[in-house]
Amino acid sequence: MLLWCGSAVTASKNDNFYANPLLLNGRPLDLKTFSAASRGVLTFVKGDPYACNMPKVPFVIYLKRGDQIINEGVSSSSYERTQVEIGPIMDIARFGDELIILPTRASDQHAKQVIQLTKFLPDLFQVFKKDGC
């Protein structure tokens, strides 16, 4: 079984942005579990992602395939939003694509997030191990 997942998020912690300001279904996005099967509402927040009522940051979200921006369906480099259902974007993504989440306010653009979608082969033995053997 060959799946794919996100391999890195890039951003810096400054101007009240944490290293990972992305929430999936209200919880900080975990790249260890983020995959083609991921579904839910993605938001971008300023400040501590574990705190309640963090301000949402308007952003655009799109796939980039090589040098080409994929403007298809929900993947759009021009449609500003404060949240998005991630499923339709993941449905059109391919191995090697970059998922770009770019804040639209000029003052927030330094917190741009880039998730490289890469191949991996899960350790199937770990999936079935229940007793620690």
Describe the structure.
This protein has 133 residues and is mainly β. It has one domain. It is built from 2 helices and 10 strands; from the N terminus they run ββββββββαββα. It has helices spanning 87-92, 124-128, and strands spanning 3-6, 22-24, 27-28, 41-44, 59-65, 68-70, 76-81, 83-85, 98-103, 113-120. The strands form 2 sheets. Strands 1, 5, 6, 7, 9 and 10 form a 6-stranded antiparallel β-sheet that branches. A 4-stranded antiparallel β-sheet has the order 3-2-4-8. Residues 1-5, 9-13 and 121-126 have low confidence and may be disordered.
Write the H/E string, N to C: EEEEEEEEHEEH
Helix content: under 10%
Class by SSE composition: mainly beta
General shape: globular
Largest sheet descriptor: 6 strands, antiparallel
Query: Distance N terminus to C terminus?
Result: 23 Å
Q: Count of DSSP E strands?
A: 10
Radius of gyration over all CA atoms, rounded:
16 Å
**Uncertain residue segments:** 1-5, 9-13, 121-126
Kindly state the mean pLDDT as a whole number?
81
Strand content: 25-35%
Overall tally of domains = 1
What's this entry about, in short?
With 133 residues, the chain is mostly beta strands.
Describe the protein's topology.
Elements: E1 3-6, E2 22-24, E3 27-28, E4 41-44, E5 59-65, E6 68-70, E7 76-81, E8 83-85, H1 87-92, E9 98-103, E10 113-120, H2 124-128
Antiparallel strand pairs: 1-10, 2-3, 2-4, 4-8, 5-6, 5-7, 5-9, 9-10
